[in-house]
Amino acid sequence: MNDMTLPREAVLRMTAAPGFPVLSLAERDRRWGLARDEMERRGIDCLFIVCKGYNTNGNARWLDNADHSDRYLLFPRRGNPVILRGPAHWQEWYPELFWEGVRYQGTAGGQTSSATVDLICDYGYENGTIGIIGLTGAMMSTEGDIPYLTFQNLKKRLPKASFVDVTDMLLGFRMFKSQEELAMVEKAAELSNLQIATVRRLARPGARELDLFTDMTAAALKAGNEIGREHWSIMCSGKGYPTNRPPSRRTLKKGDMLCVSHYTRYGGYWGHPHTAMSLGPIDEEYKPLRAVVRESIQRVLELLKPGTPWSEIDRMIDEPIIKSGYYHEIPQIHGIGLDGHEPPVGPHAGGQIPVKRGRPKGSITDNEEWQQFAKTQSRPTKDLVVREGMVLAIETKAVKENRLFLEFGPLVVTERSGPRVLTPEALDVIEL
Hints:
By secondary structure, the protein is of the alpha+beta class. It has helices at about 25-40, 60-65, 110-120, 150-155, 170-175, 180-200, 210-220, 285-305, 310-325, 370-375; strands at about 45-50, 70-75, 80-85, 105, 130-135, 160-165, 235, 255-260, 265, 270, 275-280, 335, 340-345, 390-395, 395-400, 405-410, 410-415, 420, 430. Strands 4-3-2-1-5-6 form a 6-stranded mixed sheet, sandwiched between helices. It has a 5-stranded antiparallel sheet with strand order 13-12-14-17-18, sandwiched between helices. Strand 5, helix 4 (about 150-155) and strand 6 (about 160-165) form a beta-alpha-beta unit. Helix 6 crosses helix 7 (about 210-220).
């Protein structure tokens, strides 16, 4: 299992960095064509894409193939895309990490908005329509990612331009992966399977969570895993809830339930199965939770065939959990790719959740300016049906009385005949 090679090397173009996987120029042209056709349809002259923080890297990487996190990308309807990031001399360090045809513009010293304005003027779009990706936000970042003063300076320096929010624009394309993208996902899944095998081999009474995490991370890194700034893992053992936390110095004990969220990445594409391992025979309290989680996963696997309305997935993944009197506070299923969370996303919560504190009053969605910009978005998941090429992280969970938690679920790819499970050991509790 440690002797791992690049997946489908024939479709990958290698760069100056030996062993660094880069998608082909044909894949670049496919994406740029899709984006520019959609810009033409919406009357948008430039996209300004903001990558600031967790799970906001994918829209830029889908267009530039660059492995930078915090950055900006200007993507004109005609002309070369430009990465805006860091000191000017850094452009000599990173050219092997982004596609040919992408330029680099240094913006250190607070020059991002000014450099963007100059570029827009160079392309002749100073009176045009500028689409902002990262303004009103999407997924878990409803308030957006673009700095307030950056946006204000763009409007001030381009008084004749129109600005619209198009945070949704690329998400619809990204939900369905090409064969080259799936090759990267398969590699990430192999790395996840290597992590599962490592934890399975080493998880014994007396082992520390932190040591298991270190060993599984090291094994995957040696086999080609990319950490990136967004890399993190969740590992918890024993009984108790909440358990959505990083590994601790806790020592495992006989009878523990060890829950692990595996985050691997290859060529920018994430793998994300969840496993549950029982140290010895499964505790009696966990058996009913195990039964409903398994039922939920099996129902969803039966439904993940082309043509199934996504609304049916949303309903059926929750039904066994809620009917049994359990609840959850994290999505049960979500897309995955260049970001750890991509659409479509299942219900964020379900069942009778114990309320510890009241919800804050008001929302950014009450803001009139937010509402005006939000009108320019579409909903890529509205009336969505399952199609081939979707990559989904199933992570079904059941919580009891705010004290008992069980979660497991595989990474899958939808195909014509149904889902292909890439991490089969995540389909059930593993008894060690």
